[in-house]
Amino acid sequence: MEGVTATNLGTVTLSAGQHAFRFTVTGKNDASNAYYFTVDSFVLMPAQTDDHTTPVTTSNAPEGWAKEDVIVTLSPTDSQSGVAKTIYSIDGADDVEGTSFTIKSGGVHTISFNSVDNAGNVEAAHTQQARIDKSAPVTGATVAPAQPDGSNEWYVHDVTLISDASDNLSGVSNTEYSLKLFGLHKAESGWPV
Ligand SMILES: [Ca+2]
């Protein structure tokens, strides 16, 4: 500035944080009675480093079939600027911001999710499936031959028990059965009837 005499204060090394510092400029010109400019303090910020790393988001959704509601928690982390938001979508529906949700309906659901950090880096979307089957399988059984092959409603040859268990979602894992005998049975030559 014209007419200002600068004084070199030299080099001062400061740590990050708030420091007190004062310099004052005073004087006047023809159009004003007086003017002054004062700085009382300033904050020294650490140098910013660029964040080029995308966040990482994980999910606790179970890998296999669940027989009840699935409560999903998403856990985002970011190494530098921090997580700004996490977004998820269920079965292609509109994106929702948040980190926890519940899936209740039976079937195979597709979850997609990702996060954005405070520097604007967008994580590539993850896709995961949540499988829910709340209905029990249905089990029936038939015998072969269907009708007794002897007289008076007695079987005289081996009888085969045929199970026809079915399940409309997760499928049948295994079928158990027990056999009870009441009174005489015709197959005297061996077990089972
Ligand atoms: Ca980052």
Automatic annotation (TrEMBL):
Stated name of the protein: Bacterial Ig-like domain-containing protein
Gene3D superfamilies in the record: 3.30.1920.20
